[in-house]
Amino acid sequence: MAGVLAGCSRETKASFQGVDVTGAEYARDFSLPDAQGRQRTLKDFAGKVVVVFFGYTQCPDVCPTSLQELAEAKRQLGAEGDRLQGVFVTLDPERDQPEVLKAYMESFDPSFVALRGTPEQTAAMAKDFKIFYKKVEGRTPQSYTLDHSAGSYVYDTQGRLRVYQRYGSGPQVLTADVKALLTEKA
Description:
The chain is of the alpha+beta class. The protein contains five helices and ten strands, in the order αββββαβαβαββββα. A six-stranded mixed β-sheet has the order 1-10-9-4-5-6. Strands 2-3 form a two-stranded antiparallel ribbon. A hairpin with an 8-residue loop joins strand 7 and strand 8 (145-148).
């Protein structure tokens, strides 16, 4: 009988295809305004798996690829896709004005949220999330690019950081990890 009861009390822990960072002491929350000026935190998305990605709208390859993979993962989830929330944090608040961010997010998925802080808020959040970014001068003052970390942070439905998805893992890997988090029993 004890074996049967023990089976009922065990936690079901998900196995991930991305990097399991459960219990990490960083990237525990955020607080930045969205493109409409509303302050956002992880609590705003309670009950959803949240995927946070840092980038900028003029990125030529990494950022649009990552956001497209996130949108594809949401589609692959079917009806459960409504329980996946994409959050994009701009590393270029100078050029990524609210109207630019809104249009950029809508081009991938209208439900995705873009966050834009001051340069100081952006630097603080990037530091907390262990994100590297550096301005690379272009031919003109406005033609610069940004070198930056290119992975996504995945939070469970209770707002706990659980998975780091490496850039280029593909939508199937992200979809599998989101499904694992959506079916996980805490």
